[in-house]
């Protein structure tokens, strides 16, 4: 075990003294070989320890009936204690060797772990160094690229300025040519416009003259039409005034005639009313006289019918005298009026039982009955005749009342 430890220590020192940057493969191979070596040593040392151990450590104790002396017994006991002490010492030596081997294995594993950590640190350091170198190289490359790009930009800027200068000169030349072309075109345009202006002015002059001629003709036409219109309007005004004058005169004539007609009708109405009143008075007086003259006949029962006929005749005459026939009434008109009288001959009511178809004619018949009433002569008739003549009908037709 000591020689193994020494070999590992020398190998570690050799590795530390002769260190040079390697890749990841060498540390990995060293770690794997170290583990294999520890495993082989452990496998080899295990059978050796088992061979050194006694076949059995059990003690068989038995009680023998012997004739040994006490000294022999003590000697045997001492020998047994010596053997036990030897076995105990041997066991302790074995345990110490196992502890030492275990410590050697632990030390080997620790050294292997440290070798692995050292290899990992070295690999990490190499990786950092490689990354640093790569970063420095990348920075150098970027600086060179930036310098190249700056130089390229400067060259491009110079080319752009040269191109801009060339374009500016070209644009100036084109502008000069365009200005010259524009001036030529402007001159041509001015000449064309002048020619067009002259033509327009000539055309406008011609149009103005034609317009003036047209306006003169239109004015003359308008004046002629206005004169004709004025004459027509004057003629229409004269005709309207004449028509209005004629209508006024006709209206005045109609109003005068209507007024005269109204006055005549009013006069005729008054005359008829006066005649009806006088006729009614005369009929009343005549009826009174007739009744007075015929009182003796009325008193006679045989002469009652004659008295009744006399009463009807008196009523018809009184109504005829009070009746004012409307102007223009046709001779074919006819109306029946039912007359209702009171006990003293007063008029209770007069109604049209058959109309003539002419409302004015019907009203005049009713008015005639109303004007002729009352018929007081009814009281002078016999009681039987009075009841018979409390209601009777009168038929009105122009010129006759029945």
Describe this protein's structure.
There is one protein chain. The chain has 402 residues and is mainly alpha-helical. The chain has a domain at 300-401: Fusion Protein Consisting Of Minor Coat Protein, Glycine Rich Linker, Tola, And A His Tag, Chain: A, Domain 2 (2-Layer Sandwich), CATH 3.30.1150.10. Helix content is 78%, strand content 6%. The chain has six helices and four strands, in the order ααααββααββ. It has helices at 2-17, 25-52, 70-299, 304-322, 359-372, 383-388; strands spanning 335-341, 347-354, 391-397, 400-401. The chain has a four-stranded antiparallel beta sheet with strand order 2-1-3-4. Helix 2 crosses helix 3 (70-299), helix 3 (70-299) crosses helix 4 (304-322) and helix 4 (304-322) crosses helix 5 (359-372). The longest helix is centred in the middle third of the chain and has 230 residues, at 70-299. The protein is elongated. Mean pLDDT is 78; it is low at 55-62.
Outline the secondary-structure elements.
Layout: H1 2-17, H2 25-52, H3 70-299, H4 304-322, E1 335-341, E2 347-354, H5 359-372, H6 383-388, E3 391-397, E4 400-401
Antiparallel strand pairs: 1-2, 1-3, 3-4
Helix pairs in contact: 2-3, 3-4, 4-5
